[in-house]
Amino acid sequence: MVSVISAFVMSEALDLERWVHAFIDKRSIENDLELSTALVKMYANCGYVEKTVEVFEAMPFKDVKEWSSMIVGLIVNGLAEYALVIFSRMNEAKLADLVFKLVVVIFEVGIEFLISCELD
User: Fold this and answer.
1) What is the DSSP annotation of 76-115?
2) Distance (Å, whole) CA 107 – CA 18
3) 8-34 pLDDT, tens per residue?
4) Which of 1, 21, 45, 108 has the fewest C-beta atoms lying within 10 Å of its C-beta?
5) Minimal CA–CA distance to 71: which of 44, 39, 42, 102?
6) Quick check: 37 and 66 in contact, CB under 8 A?
């Protein structure tokens, strides 16, 4: 099911995406962390922020991937202030340090890549 949702993320076909979510609910398909994260990304990509928040808040457990998906989804939809609120909640959940470290590593790798491109 996650593969199906992932295919729809790029399509921005909200009606079809809603149908998939209704299918999941109707068939009582287990809505695990991976599936919930795919739904968050799917709804955020279509600009359906209300549903994005609803799915995110319904997750009983969230790890870095879920928090990050929600934050990026909010930023992409022009809700940077709300993204900061979510980041603050993530910080309270003691996960923000992991994201910061990841961003630093990605930044450093990017800098090294740019330097190597300039040297070539």
Assistant:
1) HTT-HHHHHHHHHHHHHTT-HHHHHHHHHHHHHHHHHHHH
2) 36
3) 555 556 667 677 777 777 877 776 788
4) 108
5) 44
6) yes
Residue the block writes with tokens 């929600």: 70
User: Domains of the chain: which residue ranges?
Assistant: 2-119
pTM above 0.90, yes or no: no
CA nearest neighbour of 87 among 54, 57, 64:
64
How far apart are alpha carbons 55 and 5 in whole angstroms? 14
C-alpha span between 66 and 93 (Å, rounded): 12
Alpha-helical segments (H) within 27-63 = 33-45, 49-58
Query: Residue for token digits 């022009």?
Result: 78
**Alpha-carbon Rg for the chain in angstroms:** 16
